[in-house]
Each structure stands twice: as C-alpha cells, then as structure tokens.
Amino acid sequence: MSVLTESGLRAADASVPGLDVDPFAIEFFDDPYPAHARLRDAGPLVYLDKWSVYGVARYAEVHAVLNDPMTFCSSRGVGLSDFAKEEPWRPQSIILEADPPAHTRARAVLSHVLSPTAMKHLRDRFAAAAAAKVDELLARKSFDAIADLAEAYPMSVFPDALGLKAEGREHLLPYAGLVFNAFGPPNQLRQDAIERSAPHQAYVAEQCQRENLAPGGFGACIHARVDSGDITAEEAPLLVRSLLSAGIDTTVNGLGAAIYCLARFPEQLARLRRDPSLARNAFEEAVRFESPVQTFFRTTTREVELGGHRIGEGEKVLMFLGSANRDPRRWDNPDDYDITRRASGHVGFGSGIHMCVGQLVARLEGETFLSALARKVASIDITGPVKRRYNNTLRGLENLPITITAA
Fold first, then answer.
1. What does the pLDDT read at residue 14?
2. Do 381 and 352 meet the contact criterion of CB atoms below 8 Å apart?
C-alpha cells in the first residue's frame, strides 16, 4: 500500500515517514530545534521529500552510520552530490571524501602530524597568544566577539602553526565557508559561494605547495612524508588543503559558540571562573550544544537495514549531527548548556574513522582561550543584535556584539 507524506509526495520506501522539512532553508538555519525534534519523533529513519534523501536525526542512528564506513561510504561525496553520478566541484579530498584503504593511509599521515605530542609543543605558544588577545579585548571592553575574537584568535595562531606565508590569509575563512557550503544542494548559498570562489581556490592551491610552506609547520611535515614514501607528491598538497579547510571554521564557530553560551548563561561563566580547569569541558559542551558542523551525508554501498527499514544501494543518507547532540534519548536535559556535563561521545566533530582531522587543534585553541578568559574576565554582556551566518553545513554567527569587564 502506498503512503503519502505530509507534503503529499510519495516516499522512496512507503514505510519510511516522509517529511517536508528542508534542512537547507534559511528558516531552518534560524531555528533548527523544532524541526530536529520533529525529525527525531517521526522515527529512527525519515525521508526528506524536498531533496529525495533519507535522514537520521537520533543519536543512535547517526552514531551507527558514522561508524560503519564500509556500508555508508564517503568516497561518493559527503554532500548532496553523488560523485558516482556527477563531477565534484573540485578534486575530491583524499581524507574526507575517501574510503579505506586509501583513507587509512592518508589519515595515518595527518594523525602523526597532528599528534598529541605535536599539540604539546604548541600549547605554550597558543596560551600566550590567548592571554594577550584577552588583555587586548579587555582594554577595548566592547567589540564583536566573532570578528575580533572567534576569528581573530585562531587566525593569529593556526596559519603560523601550519607554516603559511603572511600574505593572502584573508582568503582562508571564505575558502572554508565555500567548502562547507558546497556540501549542500544547488541553492543560492552554494551557487554564490562557488561563483565567488576562484581567488580563494587559487590562493589555497598555491599555499599547499611544498616551496610555499615554512619549515617545521604542519604543512612541511606533511610534505616530508613524501620523502619517507608514506604519500605521493601529488597527495601531499591535497592533505595540506584538507587541514586548511578543516582547521579554521570548526574552531571559529566552536569558539564563537562558547562565547555565545557563556554570555547567555552567566551562571556557567561564574562556574568556569571558580574552576578554570573546566575550560576544555566548556568548549566541548559548546560544540555539543551548538554543533558548529550540523550535517554530513553518506552514500549506501549496498542494501542495508537502518532504523528498522531496508534501503537500497546508492542512497544518500543525511546525518543531523546537531540533532543527535540534543537527542533526549542520549542526553539528560540536552537543551541546557552545562560545563560540568560529561560531553564526551558527542558527534560535533563526527565519530569513527572520519572524525574531524582538526579536532585536536580546535580543542587546544578552545581550551587555551577559555582558560585565559576564565582567569581575566568577570562578565560578558550581549550589547546589540546578534546576526547569524548562513551556511549549508555550518552553524555560526556573523556578529555577536559584547562588552566584557575585567575580573
């Protein structure tokens, strides 16, 4: 028996609830939470009529899809586009858009370059830069927490750690925004981003070459793995490119989310001030609570059962990471920002073999900045209209006017 969905369209499998939710609409970006609840309540697997794809919004199914890369592959694209049927807009990533065994080899190189040991060497430098930035902002008192803090701090430390030249760094944020917009459908956001992308793409392609990267930085370390035979000379620039797109926006939006949370929940800022060792957790909880990366796609490699339904090979499945991170089936009081929560297990950085390659850098930057803030700042007040930045994949702010007072 055929079943019509709420929108009057037939779902691919009539037993899967079909919904007229458009996760790439501006109205959805403004307030995704009612739609997330609707998606979760509809069932463990839904069908999104607007884009003819399956969706999973509950934690259990999102986690399961992320951790079964052989069934739910990345090589056919982690956006709406299916690379088996259409050309990628750029040469595809050998880390994000790859499957084992090719992915395993590339991932091993990045895991070595971005190891916990490498982070230890950066900690003092990042902490000093964070303290200096907080002092500078305290002197100003009022500023935009996105441009002057969430963007300014990572941009003051990460490009140097990567080994980039000083010129041209203004291309980094637009390039990362472009990459994440391109994972969406052919809507205005994606089209505008790709149309404006030529100078950003040219800059990034040039910066990823060995001769343009400073010795000792992450980029040079990646290229050094060509000499040891771990990757080819053609693969090295693509791995540097992956770091450029993964290492900026996750931190910018994560840090912006943390400041936005601490401003809205002053009791949590007070708790952080009493115990600055909670800085890492405050950042982690902000990533769970706001989920800077909201969605990613996978493609089925075979017929598979998911959420009690059978779906065929070659189907796109959209994972709602932001919804999973607020699923009451997994979290107590999921809509509370609580810096003492055990937030480990959230999927804000993904999960499994494709977990965000820049996560250790993002966590180090988040922790060092919030630690400096906890020691030096007594209060954070929002002093004007807060404006959202629209992106097909990312959730973040364009503006966050605040005033801070010294401890």
1. 81
2. no
Q: Domain of 171: which CATH number?
A: 1.10.630.10
Per-residue model confidence (pLDDT) at position 6 = 43
How far apart, in whole angstroms, are the C-alpha atoms of residue 153 and residue 365? Answer: 8
What are the backbone dihedrals phi and psi of residue 122, each rounded to the nearest 5 degrees, phi first?
Answer: -90, -20
Q: How far apart are CA 293 and CA 180, in angstroms?
A: 9
For position 208, what pLDDT does the model report? 96
Two structure tokens written together for 385? 């209209």
Q: Are the C-beta atoms of 48 and 318 separated by less than 8 Å?
A: yes
In a domain? residue 3: no
Q: Are 351 and 361 in contact (CB under 8 A)?
A: no
* Per-residue confidence (pLDDT) for residue 11, from 0 to 100: 44
Calpha distance 271→45 (Å, rounded): 39
Alpha helices in 141-248 (DSSP H): 152-162, 172-181, 188-195, 198-207, 218-227, 235-246
Enter the pTM of the model: 0.95
Q: Which residues contact 358 (CB under 8 A, 6 or more apart)?
A: 114, 243, 246, 247, 250, 251
Report the pLDDT value the prediction gives residue 12, as an integer from 0 to 100.
54
Residue count of the chain, please give it.
407
Tokens of 240: 């540097």
The number of distinct structural domains making up the chain is 1
Decide if 180 is inside a domain.
yes
Find, among 7, 3, 16, the residue nearest to 53 by Cα.
16
- Is 8 part of a structural domain of the chain? no
CA dist 329 and 179 (Å) reads 32
Task: Read off the amino acid at residue 17.
Answer: P
Report the chain (407 residues): mean pLDDT per 10 consecutive residues. 37 82 98 98 98 98 98 97 92 93 94 94 97 98 98 96 95 92 96 93 95 97 96 96 86 97 98 98 98 98 97 98 98 98 96 92 96 98 98 97 98
Do residues 94 and 106 make contact, with C-beta atoms less than 8 angstroms apart? yes
* Domain limits for position 354: 18-406
Q: Residue 372, Cβ neighbours under 10 Å: how many?
A: 23
Is the Cα dihedral 390, 396, 398, 402 positive or negative? positive
Residue 162 lies in a domain: yes
For the chain, how far is it from start to end, CA to CA, in angstroms?
66
Local structure of 382: helix, strand or coil: strand
CA-based nearest residue to 7, from 50, 71, 45: 50
